[in-house]
Amino acid sequence: MSILQIQNVSKFYANHTALNNVSFDVPKGKIFGLLGPNGAGKTSLIRIINQITAPDEGQVLFNGEVLNNEHIKNIGYLPEERGLYKKMNVFDQLIYFARLRGLNKHEAKITIDMWLEKFEASTWKKKKIEELSKGMQQKIQFIVTVLHKPDFIILDEPFTGFDPKNTQLIKDEIVNLKNNGATIMLSTHRMESVEAICDEVVLINKAKLVTQGTVGSVRNSLKDNSFEIQYQGSLNLENITGLQIKDKTEKEGIHQVTFKYAGDPKLGLQQFSNQDIEIKSYREVLPSMQEVFLTLTESHE
Amino acid sequence: MNNIWIVTSREYSSRVKKKSFILMTLLAPLLIAAFYGAIIWMSINDNVGSSTKNIVVVDPVNVFTGKLKNPDKINFILKPTFNIKELVQDESIDGFIEIPQRYKLADEFQLKYQSMKSLSVSDNDKIKDAFGSILREEKLKSLGITQAAIDSLRVNVSISEFKIDDEGNSKSSNLGINTALGMGLAVMIYFFIFLYGVQVMRGVIEEKTNRIIELIVSTVKPFQLMMGKVIGIAAVGLTQLGIWMILTSILMTIISVVFGLNVADAPQVSEMASNPALKNMDNNVAQALTSFYNLPLLKIFGTFVFYFIGGYLLYGALFAAIGSAVDSETDTQQFMMPITLPLVFSFVISFSVVVNDPNGVLATWLSIIPFSSPIVMMVRTPFEPELWQVITSMLVLLATIIGIIWLAGKIYRTGILMYGKKPTYKELAKWLFYKN
Questions:
Q1: Distance of CA B378 to the CA centre of its chain
Q2: Per-residue DSSP letters for B309-335?
Q3: With 80 as the cut, is the pLDDT of residue B390 above it?
Q4: Beta-carbon separation of A100 and B435 below 8 A
Q5: Do B218 and A144 touch (CB under 8 A)?
Q6: Cβ pairs A/B, distance under 8 A
Q7: pLDDT confidence of B280, banded at 50, 70, 90?
Q8: Which of A257, B277, B281, B423 is disulfide-compatible with B427, CB 3.0–4.6 A?
Q9: pLDDT of residue B288
């Protein structure tokens, strides 16, 4: 079941194409990574989903319906460029955005108190935004994004400006939201976060969709028969045929070798087992999301 | 619609709660009242601060001796001879006038005033009057005409205007009151448009530079945001205006009462009453007041509110469009020009041409053209322009407001999400045709 369907969407500006016939589905209840280098068209796509702009071609379906005004209440958006009214106090600000997203004052108050407590921010209620630290402002911005309990949440670089402790807090909160049934579209350049929390990803480069799928399948699609072995004992690596060594380390008597093996992986392992060593681990090495990102965006240069 | 209301109330409450707003709202009437009080005080205590001048007059022909009267704050000292060195030495003497030796009554009369300080305009007039009146009497005498005959020739002409309505009823109208009322209200509209129009622009720029705009337009249509802002700020202005009107009238009444009592205590009052010219003045005031109350005040007030809001909406939308097109206030000048020009132009024309000929061709046209009508029509209103002109002007303004808001909305919608290079007029024109 898809909550969002992007169907053949194109967006053209005066002298460049921001999106070129992009299609993909966002499954419900997942954390969905929207990846791509700067200027790839992510922001244009996010703006289209938020109905800030309209696509020039194609359409977007939300819960099976063509995107319309009613859906605004079901979408939460954390823009990359953060911004709040600096002179307005935290509480008034939250109430304002809650009301714009269709909550009445009473409902808004309850949710706001709940979130402020969760973020240990209850004492800031009457403070103006400009009096808060950057991290505190980011927390308020996050609350603005989620306080109307949207089904679909777009987070554009949600971790910037947070220290490691708060980054973890936000990560946990994102997973929490997912567990409560929300779908999250996460746009970030932090590939380790993508690996950690995303279920599915799409990669956009130069206005076009490059790849899509689960994190595992995307990494698998780029695997280059790399393996890693850890063993104890002495071994002449030249005894093993078909090996292309990439990296070799030794720590406290444990050798770790990363290599490419062109043939059947089972045969490779067999060759190692025939040697007089104690194998601690043997595993296939998939490219990291970082590597996937770099490979796919470079090969399309 | 609901969203416009939410935005409006935020714009309103965030501004009304500001310290600067509260301060300005309370302080301005005090300043006006203080100004008003100072004027009354100065008019009661005339010539405050200036001391009496001693001027030596040497009159060898003996025309002025014994006849020269001292005007207010000037003391003529007649001497047979005077050395210019005394003027320098004697600090009590301010100036020296010597009547020419070979002076004849038929000649052009020129006084030579010598002093270490130059003569003020009013002292200059007083001295000219003092000598002039004696010369006139002398000349009359030489022609055999008496002063009484002259007085009987003096004719006082004044015009009492009466406005006749369709049913032939007449009521008095007063040029001065009409002019003052019309201009006063026009000035208010002019300043309101400027002050609050610029606030709209600033608000838009603030949202843009804060980058909050991205978040807001994902919940509110840009048009709703713009309208909410324009309406909210208008409400702030109306609130301020309302408070000012109430406070000012209270303070003015207090001041009038305070000074009124002082005036009654002053000894001049008895002189005033005996002076026919002043009685005449009293009469004028009474007549002016009747004319004032004879004016269709309710109609004028209604017209004022219409053009006040209409003019602001028209220009406010344009200011919003400018704000959206730039990244910072320093970039606004280029776009401000075409907006401020018609405003300043109508202001200047109102105070020169329209006031002198409120129902003339230029006044009529300018009061129909929407970019000048809020100011020009306001100046004309107390002179009761023809109804069809008022209705045409209002309809044209309304239509233009709708058109301009639509256009401004298009520029705004694109502009608020554009950062970086300052757009050209050509680009602004292109934005009008962007689909979304």
A1: 14
A2: HHHHHHHHHHHHHHHHH-SSGGG-HHH
A3: yes
A4: no
A5: no
A6: 55
A7: low
A8: B423
A9: 62
The overall average pLDDT reported for chain B is 80
Question: What tens digit of pLDDT does each residue of B83-108 get?
Answer: 777 777 777 888 888 887 777 776 77
SS3 A247: strand
Helices (H), A12-158: 42-49, 90-100, 105-118, 134-146
Task: Give A174-226 pLDDT, tens digit per residue.
Answer: 999 999 999 999 998 888 888 888 999 999 988 888 888 898 888 888 888 88
Tokens linked to A285: 């090495």
Q: Give me the pLDDT at residue B269, please.
A: 40
If we measure between CA atoms, which residue out of B217, B215, B429, B328 comes closest to residue A14?
B429
DSSP character string of A190-202: -HHHHHHH-SEEE
For residue A301, the model assigns a pLDDT of 47
Instruction: Give me the residues paired with residue A285 across strands.
Output: A226
Burial letters B379-409, b for 16+ CB under 10 A, else e: bbbbbbbeeebbeebbeebeebbeebbebbb
Q: According to the model, what pLDDT value does residue B259 have?
A: 64
Q: Does A97 touch chain B (CB under 8 A)?
A: yes
- Closest alpha carbon to B290 in B170, B168, B171, B163: B171
Element (H or E) spanning B237, and its range? Answer: helix B222-265
Beta sheet of A31-35, edge-to-edge order:
A75-78, A152-156, A183-187, A31-35, A200-205, A208-214
**Closest Cα to residue A161, out of A79, A77, A43, A75?**
A79
Partner residue facing B436 (CB), from A54, A84, A99: A54
Kindly indicate the confidence band of residue B253, based on its pLDDT and cuts at 50, 70 and 90.
confident
Distances (CA, A) of B388 to A290, B185, B361, B393: 74, 21, 15, 8
The four Cα atoms B337, B342, B344, B348 give a dihedral, to 10 degrees, of 150
**Which two tokens mark B105?**
């009554």
Is residue B144 classed as helix, strand or coil in its secondary structure? Answer: coil
Is B435 within 8 Å of chain A by CB? yes
SS3 A227: strand
Determine how many CB atoms are found less than 10 A away from the CB of residue A89.
Answer: 17
Q: Which chain A residues contact residue B217 at CB under 8 A?
A: 50, 52
Kindly report the CA angle at A120 between A114 and A125, in degrees rounded to 5? 70
Burial of B211 (0-12, 13-18, 19+ CB in 10 A): middle
Q: Dihedral (C-alpha) A49, A50, A53, A55: value to the nearest 10 degrees?
A: 10
Structure confidence by residue, pLDDT tens digits, B130-184: 888 888 888 888 888 877 787 787 777 777 766 666 666 666 666 777 788 888 8
**pLDDT for res A23:** 93
Q: How far apart are CA A77 and CA A90, in angstroms?
A: 18
Give how far the C-alpha of residue B143 lies from the chain's centroid of Cα atoms, to the nearest Å: 48
- pLDDT of amino acid B165: 63
Alpha-carbon distance of B41 to A93, in angstroms, equals 50
Residue to test with chain A: of B209, B219, B433, B435, most A Cβ within 10 A: B219
